[in-house]
Amino acid sequence: MPTPITFHIYQGGQLVRSETLAQDVIKIGKLDSSHLKLEDDGVSRMHSVIEVSPGGEVFIIDLGSASGTIVNGQRISKVQLQTGDQLQFGNTVVAVEVGEAGEQDDADDQRAYDAQQDYQQQYAAPQQPAAAAPRKATLVGGQMGANPFGAPAAAAPAGFAAAEPAYAAAEPQYAAPQYGGHEDYHQEHGQHGSDEELEGMDNVVYQLIPQTPPVNPADVDSGESAVEVVILWGELSILHVEHMSPPRSFFVGEATDAKGKPATDFLIGSESLGTDRLPVVVESGSTCAVVIPPGAVGDVSIGNQVISLDDLAAQGQLQPSSALAGARQYPLPPGATARVMYRGFTFVVKPVSAARAIGVGQANRVDWKGYIWTFASMGLHVGLLLLFYFLPPRSASLSLDLLNADSRLVKYLIEPPETVEEETPEWLQENKQEDDEGGKGKRHKDEEGQMGKKDEKKTKNKFGIEGPPDNQDPHMAREEAKEMAANAGIIGVLKASVGAWNSPTSPYGRDSALGNDAMSALGALMGDQVGSNFGFGGLGLRGTGRGGGGTGEGTIGLGNIGTIGHGAGGGTGSGYGSGAGGFRGRDAKVPRIRSGQADVHGSLSKEVIRRVIGRHINEVRFCYEQELNSRPDLQGRVAVKFIISPTGAVQTAAVDKSDMGNAKVEQCIAQAVRRWTFPAPEGGGIVVVTYPFVLAQTGG
Fold first, then answer.
1. What is the rounded CA–CA span in Å between residue 700 and residue 698?
2. Which tens digit of pLDDT belongs to each residue from 511-542?
């Protein structure tokens, strides 16, 4: 069973209550979860803890409280408790009894009263403690100065004198603080030390024990210089750490500039410093100097030698500082550490090496050797990308074999639209027999001239020679016969003028003119109706001559058959017929691609090659249609010679023979053939093919 412990709690010299606890760990503080809860402003939330060892030994451990844990007038970090010990937590005093609890009777009350009387007699008159020997600052250390950021300390309870600072009784000795922790408590009730080790626990120094080899400074430091400034409250509480590279001045305080921005590097109230801007480090030539305000104490450590600031002043090594009135400064040599204590603050300044920048290697220099392979890899990949960009695509990649010929969408995209033939009107169908041939007229000989009369207006009338419609021998009259008829008598004129008056004449004509028209008229060679028209008396379409520009004698027309004819028939005759004529219907003209006899040398059959070409025939049609828009009369035969590789791809393709006379169509077809893929020849080898394409238009 754990050893019971009885606590008699006093506040203001009066017994408040007594509690008995029997457990291995007893937490003391202001938290509700504390086993011994103390209502005191000077008590921390987790102030201290009491541990009971298996052997019945009782230890109290301070948990880093602000006011500390005082046992029998001494501030401790860890100490063994015995019956009669008096503990102080803030303004609360606790008397401890270790062991079995006695009967709660008048004897217990008497012992409590006696303990209270002893307590008052011991602390009623202030006693000045003897000057303690200087010691190193530890976790508990000497008495700290008041917290400049906290509320004023509460007055000491009656019977207690305020403890004087340790450095008031003797010359201070400053050493680097060594930080540690409460090893027993944080290791969950580990084994305690021996009795010899537990004696004088207030002088135990806690420090961190390195578990790995030290880091090589060359791995973390650079060659650049820097200054480290550490600001502490008292000797243990670190407020700020600053590394300045390159070295520069460092100020603390609450001063601001003209724009209202802070003019200091760290904010400390002026009521604590006595000034709104206190220099800690200033630049001094190529190095830096620590500033010593008036009234400050401290020392400078160089190696194992420690020199106080007063000794430096006596040696004349301190210089007046222009940064603060009445202050002095000391230039720090390499390896020196200055410690200045002023108004409860400790400023530690020392020159150091600047830390190496993370991820760069060094602050101002890049190790390019480490990037050689990176740049080489980048160059290789860029070269490959450029090679892919400028490499021409394979002909097989442009083939249409990837398109499924059975897909209705693909057929819709690559097949020409269906041609719808227009119906011929009935009135044209009735006259179709008459318009099959447009006449059989032949050009008249001699220089061509425009048919018509000079004194007539420009119209759309055509010439006419009067005569019966069924006349099988139409002919013109000679010009001399016409003149003779004009000089003959009235009867002669009537006889001779039949079909000859006011009609075209020819030097090779007959005595009289006889045609197939209802009337005679000197009009144009072509027109809408018989009548007079402007011209020069010729027998052709243009010019000023008297003939038609051909070889005929006594004929009118534009063909080669020696008869007279005119009109605008839609037939296939070479002249101009005497029918009424009409408009020729528009017939659809769809490009037609026919295949000739292929010449194949290799292990692929002609049928296989024909089927593959049949799947790609629309590519050939596309090449033909492109040029057909600009040249409607384009047609001909193109023979392409190509070589099929053992894999089935076309290695080369070129035009072998062509009578089209159009290089664009020929080269387009050859390029299309290069993209085609055929079945692989059996047994390997190549296949040489010469394939003709006949390009023509269908429709009338």
1. 7
2. 777 777 767 777 777 777 777 877 777 777 77
What the block records as the tokens of 46 is 């987790």
- Two structure tokens written together for 540: 């052709």
Measured in residues, the chain has a length of 700
Give the C-alpha separation, 112 to 126, whole Å. Answer: 23
pTM: 0.31
Evaluate whether 595 touches 692 at the Cβ level (below 8 Å).
yes
Query: Which range has the top average pLDDT, 216-225, 305-314, 511-520?
Result: 305-314
* Cβ(538)–Cβ(417) below 8 Å: no
- pLDDT, tens digit, 9 for 90 and up, residues 361-399: 444 567 788 889 999 999 999 999 999 888 876 655 555
Please report which helix (H) or strand (E) contains residue 462, including its range: strand 461-462
Kindly report the number of other CB atoms within 10 A of residue 515's CB atom: 29
Element (H, E) at 279: strand 277-284
Angle at 251 between CA 250 and CA 252, to 5 degrees: 135
Distance of alpha carbon 545 from alpha carbon 539, whole angstroms = 8
- Tokens standing for residue 202: 């207030």
Q: Do residues 605 and 587 touch, judged by C-beta distance below 8 A?
A: no
- CA quadruple 619, 621, 625, 631: dihedral sign: positive
DSSP string, 365-384: -B-GGGGHHHHHHHHHHHHH
Q: For residues 387-401, b (16+ Cβ closer than 10 Å) or e, as one string? A: eeeeeeeebbeebbe
